[in-house]
Amino acid sequence: MRLPPSCKPKEEPVRTIQAGAYSERFIALCRDGLRGREIRIDGLTGSTNDVLVRLETLDGSTQVKRLTPNETAFIITGAQSWLDVARAYFLLGVDHILSGYDHLLFVFSLVLLIGNFWMLAKTITAFTIAHSITLAGASLGYFSLPHQPVEACIALSIAFVASELARQRPGERRFSETNPWVVAFSFGLLHGFGFAGALKETGLPQTDVPLALLTFNLGVEAGQILFVALVLAVLQAARALIPFPAAKARWISAYAIGSVAMVWLFERVAAF
């Protein structure tokens, strides 16, 4: 990160890598202030990475900006308008769900498990409500769970839905098929802790906590709806173009999803 020349680091940066994301935190003293000055991320152009910058000043104001390979710098304005906060946290929510392959794989498993569109809508809604509850509660500090066990249990939730998919039989209706919204709600509470982890890393603006929480969650939901719509379109096209037995395709998908989930589970348990 390139700061204005008047800024000097107060201490060495604290660098961490968690869930595949590199994080760097530091304190800098800027004798002439930062308002109206530019902050730039070197080496971002030409890469495939995004950078989330969170700037907190001594007066308590916070500015959050998402930088991309096409936008590698921003001008510090001090306190952000409500529209700036909403935009930043909405895009953060979209980015988090679309880069959260474990969350997407869980949703993909539900889409394959449920054949009825309205039941799928009901199930996705239950998943949304559940992870919204724990996302808000964990972000505000009302309750929490350790990060690593949560990530391991998220992998286990994917394996469970994959096993239910593999056990589907014509004429038989398992509990996960008759009441999939119960399964989605139960595991959604767990997935909410995973969403909250990303939000905790970023932090919430002290003056706009409800707005930041709302727009982050709306961003997660927008990304989730986009993903479900894309999956349904691809599945519809595949059924029309590829003459492949549905039962066999479901069986192959179930074992592929379950295998990926178990690899994640072992990796995450080993990281305890």
Topology, element by element:
Layout: E1 7-9, E2 14-18, E3 21-25, E4 28-30, E5 38-40, E6 51-56, E7 62-67, E8 73-75, H1 82-99, H2 101-113, H3 117-139, H4 147-166, H5 175-178, H6 180-202, H7 209-241, H8 246-270
Antiparallel strand pairs: 1-4, 2-3, 5-8, 6-7
Helix pairs in contact: 1-7, 2-4, 2-7, 2-8, 3-6, 4-6, 4-8
Bin the strand percentage. Answer: 5-15%
Give the radius of gyration: 21 Å
Q: What about the largest sheet?
A: 2 strands, antiparallel
Strand numbers in spatial order across the main sheet = 1-4
Global geometry = elongated
List low-pLDDT spans. Answer: none
Q: Helices and strands, in N-to-C order?
A: EEEEEEEEHHHHHHHH
Number of strands: 8
Mean pLDDT: 82
Helix content: 55-70%
Number of domains: 2
Number of helices: 8
Global structural class: alpha+beta
Cα distance spanning the termini: 31 Å
Q: Would you give an account of this structure?
A:
This protein is an alpha+beta fold and 272 residues long. The chain starts with 6 loop residues before the first strand and ends with a helix. The radius of gyration is 21 Å and the shape is elongated. It contains eight helices and eight strands. The chain has a two-stranded antiparallel ribbon with strand order 1-4. A two-stranded antiparallel sheet has the order 2-3. A two-stranded antiparallel ribbon has the order 5-8. Helix 2 packs across helix 7 and helix 4 runs antiparallel to helix 8. The protein has two domains: 73 residues, no CATH class; 181 residues, no CATH class.
